């Protein structure tokens, strides 16, 4: 079993700098982008705050899960190299950042589960606009308008903002934006198509000894 080790440097308050892995055929990142920020503790604080402020039946996490599922299903129907680049542009962190940014625009009452389809469409359109503008800022770095419950260290609030889409060229972001809207329009068809038996993981054949035991007549 392969084990992947990722170097991490603690910088205080449960924050870590983590080494970014090389990304296949994409151009090498700039020197200042060789390390990422792991702020999982701050994300948990934000999610706890949202749980307290949003309706009990809020659909924000469900919207994120559905969007990730649509991204993965759509990737199955795309050809390389665009399939891999599509998944890199729409990484889970990018989708999560878009959701957090949209949630902070409020009102949180609008995220009641009754409005799931509307909020999911809002998230798709917001992400589409970010891709077209080629700008989606890191949610924590340089963000001084976060709720106090998140308790960001001062050096993070005062850090220079970071654009998560800066590493991708404009053509790739435009293609991704187009395909994202196309995916949303065709969502019911995509779900049906890639949920068909030929795309499902095959069930392992039962053990020969178990099969023989089932066929063996009961003892008299």
Outline the fold blueprint.
Elements: E1 8-12, E2 15-19, E3 35-38, H1 40-53, H2 60-76, H3 82-89, H4 92-103, H5 116-133, H6 154-157, H7 170-185, H8 187-193, H9 208-215
Antiparallel strand pairs: 1-2, 2-3
Helix pairs in contact: 2-3, 2-4, 2-5, 4-5, 5-7
Question: What features would you highlight for this structure?
Answer:
220 residues, 9 helices, 3 strands, 3-stranded antiparallel beta sheet, mainly alpha
In short:
This protein has about 220 residues and is mainly alpha-helical. The protein has nine helices and three strands.
Question: How many helices in DSSP terms?
Answer: 9
Judging from the principal axes of the Cα atoms, what is the shape?
globular
Which structural class do you get from the secondary structure elements?
mainly alpha
Q: Report the C-alpha radius of gyration, rounded.
A: 22 Å
Going across the biggest sheet, name each strand in turn.
1-2-3
Strand content: 5-15%
How would you classify the quaternary structure? single chain
Q: What is the residue-averaged pLDDT?
A: 81
Q: Level of helix content?
A: 40-55%
Low-confidence stretches: 23-32, 198-214
The largest pleated sheet is described as:
3 strands, antiparallel
